[in-house]
Amino acid sequence: MDALLKGPKWRCTTIHTEGYITTHPVQLIWRDALEVAQHIFGNPAFTNDMEFDPYEIYVNGEREFSEWMSCPRAHEIQARSIFIYKILKLIPTMIIAFRTSFPRALL
By CB neighbour count within 10 A (0-12 exposed, 13-18 middle, 19+ buried), where does 68 fall? Predict the structure, then answer.
């Protein structure tokens, strides 16, 4: 049992509400999302089961949807992410070009 990977810890937060009386305190049981993501991506049991690239499956000329990465929305999200990444990557270059194209007295 000690050799098994330990997962993110569960946490409990008591929620207080004004103007709403409860018989028992309301408790939210949760895990930190970043810790969960780090645990999943770092777990060797999932190494061969992670999918990062959307794909399309065609059977007899018709598109088949079986997993999340085969749906049109996965393609849209990836295309948008790549576009945003490329724009963000250009910003430092644009700033340098702007600063070097004007004399210091104008800035």
Answer: exposed
pLDDT in tens, 16-41: 888 888 899 899 999 999 999 888 88
| Cβ(84)–Cβ(97) below 8 Å | no
Q: Is 10 exposed, middle or buried (0-12, 13-18, 19+ CB in 10 A)?
A: exposed
3-state DSSP call for residue 8?
coil
- Give residues with Cβ within 8 angstroms of 47, minimum separation 6: none
Tell me the two tokens of residue 38: 């780090």
CA distance 2 to 99: 57
Of 8, 4, 10, nearest in space to 35 by CA:
8
Structure confidence by residue, pLDDT tens digits, 57-83:
899 999 998 888 888 888 888 888 877
